Amino acid sequence: MDPDQLSGRRLAVAVGVWVLTLLLGLLCLWWGFLTPSAEEVTPTATETGGLTPLPIETLATQPPNVQPVETFGYGIQTHGVVGDPEYTMGQVESLGLGWVKQQVRWAHFERAPGEMDWSGYDALIDAANRRGLRVMLSVVDAPDWARSYRDANPEGAPPDDLAVFADFLGRLVDRYRGRIHAIEVWNEENLDREWDNAEGVNPTRYVEMLRLAYQTIKARDPNILVISGALSPVGATATDPANPNRIIYMNDRDYFQALVAAGLLNYCDCVGVHHNGYNIPPDVAYDEPYEDDTAVFRGFWDNPDISWSFRSTLEWYHSQVAAAGSNKPLCVTEFGWASSEGWETYPTGFGFAQDNTEQEQADYIVYAYRLMREWGFVRLAFLWNLDFAQKDGIGPTDPNAPYSILDFNGAARPAFEAVRAMEKPQGQ
Questions:
Q1: Omega before 385 cis (within 30°)?
Q2: pLDDT by residue (tens digit) across 406-418?
């Protein structure tokens, strides 16, 4: 080919490439500036039937069909398997609370291995779900066939084989999958009436129970919140006079430190805590000056201890969790103030109930809810209790009755109306 023709052809190709590049550049410029952005082409709420699609980054981290859990949950414990569960759940709904707690006695479910009776709890859980309530079950009480201990408090003994308890929890979760939202594993296990065997209360053995329970629950439904069994804030330790090696109850603070050392924080989502406020307001620390010359019960004044104070107890538990390098929240699975105002008598050992008027009971409960939400380290709070005074049928000597916010006839006490009326921000 002639060199001049070759040179001309190369020039033509170069010009063509340049023109093509220029056209592509102009096309990109037009696309970037003149076409709608990704946000502009997102369907509107009207176009999607009233629901705005979630951003991609949200969908990547949020399981489908799982509602976000509120920052602070307002709850109450009911005697929901007694009476009409529809009516009881309606009362909880009328209070404006988002959570309900029900104790589940394993022995009531399974009288013999494999012979299950779910009926009472089926009705309760169905009623709660129909009203949009989240359900927390506190599971206790091994059946007689699962434990061999027969001495001091056999009704409080854990099962001989802790895996049998974990198996029951697995069946419980399978039956109510998606309809229960939290499980508390046992209750006040630092007392022998709740946990007893030849060696007495045992923090290490409880952590083994919790480990098996946690693994079983999470394998079935990872969305369920697992709460460690709340301790009784007794503030003292005692051993069996006939057997000094058997602890019949243990200072909850010593017990909790032993739990943490045994790995408790690895096997729960939330640390269970109990406190019933005796006869002082919820914001009074155990070592603060607070005077009430009319108080009949003088424990706070005569024997200063963290255990008398709602605030000090919760702050102590939070400090211990933080000291262990954890940010696990607290779940207050039982709190309240007792009042026996207007009664002819009161339960043995509950003299402090004489010191709280019904109005003080109401004021303290509402204030406690507010404080727990504001403190920021409490995830759930369950008031003790809605209706035991009416449903136990025992009368003024019933230890549960002074805490009830419904009276013996089912009528609202001042605390019921106060809880209904209180603000419930950032939660339900």
A1: yes
A2: 999 999 999 999 9
